[in-house]
Amino acid sequence: MSGRKLLFVDRDGTLIVEPADQQIDSFDKLALVDNVIPALSRIVAAGYELVMITNQDGLGSDSFPQHTFDGPHALMLRIFASQGIRFREILIDRSFAHEGRDTRKPGAGLVRHWLADDGWSRAQSAMVGDRETDTQFAANLGIRSFRLDTGEWNWNAIAHELCDAPRCASVQRNTKETSIAVRVDLDRAVEPKVHTGLGFFDHMLEQIGKHGGFALELACAGDTHIDEHHTIEDCALALGSALRQALGDKRGIGRYGAAAETTHGETMVDITLPMDETIARATLDLSGRAFFVFDGTFPRDRVGDIPTELVPHFFRSLCDTLGANLHLAVRGDNAHHMIEACFKSVARALRVALRRDGSELPSTKGTL
Hints:
The protein is of the alpha/beta class. The chain is built from 9 helices and 16 strands. The protein folds into 2 domains: 159 residues, HAD superfamily/HAD-like (Rossmann fold, 3-Layer(aba) Sandwich); 202 residues, Ribosomal Protein S5, domain 2 (2-Layer Sandwich). The chain has a 5-stranded parallel β-sheet, sandwiched between helices. A hairpin with a 2-residue loop joins strand 14 and strand 15. Helix 1 packs parallel to helix 5, helix 6 packs parallel to helix 9 and helix 7 runs parallel beside helix 8. The protein is elongated and about 80 Å long. The two termini are 31 Å apart.
């Protein structure tokens, strides 16, 4: 099977903004969708060939004369071409929906030649559109689809998904005590979204995503009417599982960071982080073997809704499912500062350890 990759792309509402009357029949109606040019530039550079496929109801009829379509369409193509974005093929169906022609999406009549061609990879190809008919069309071709109208995807996110081979994972952990959903994307930095029912704990988990440099979404419904233990422990277990899944075989992860060293070819990341009078030090090894050592004493029993005894327990649980060796030490006078410095220093160590750095496995053992 060839490695050729095709991106089938709808036109109105996908490449250009669709007006209320659904006809781009004048130059003043022509407007590009946000970020479509930089996204398609990345996608083309990554080796994708572009095929535009669009339904244009009644094109060439009295209600939609051909000449009113041609000018804006040609200008759009010239704008794309000026940025190195060219379409291998442009497929236009002119029928109305009530005619029921198989050439109209979601029908695949216009792409029979592609269906008969085994020279491109269905697994690596995709469709981008803005309607359910585009999703159905993609299913008829046996390729994945992205929709711009649902709010789940935009052009930047699509380019990231297609070009970066993102390391993503979603974990659902359900017990009688908690129900947790976690999603991580190690190659995309966005504001974390966390809700556990424990305000200060939410703030600490946000530090992991923010300073770890990866996308983190975590929602937990836990038995906080009993106490905080199950929520804090199970969130750590779920987050560690998601990170481990997203890492895959760990090829290409970063090996060195601030004050970093290696032992027996394994990744060691040492981060020291101050916060006012507090200093915290996190040394992390993504070895696949769980071990946790904590050195610190908190000056009070609680900060917000977190018992301080659960702070080391959180990191121990994280190590258990992540398969990490973590040494964490903290000194200070303010318990809030101490806890926050712990989370931030571990997050910064994760940022370095998770970072892509080539394609080699950072271990002399051949596995992590």
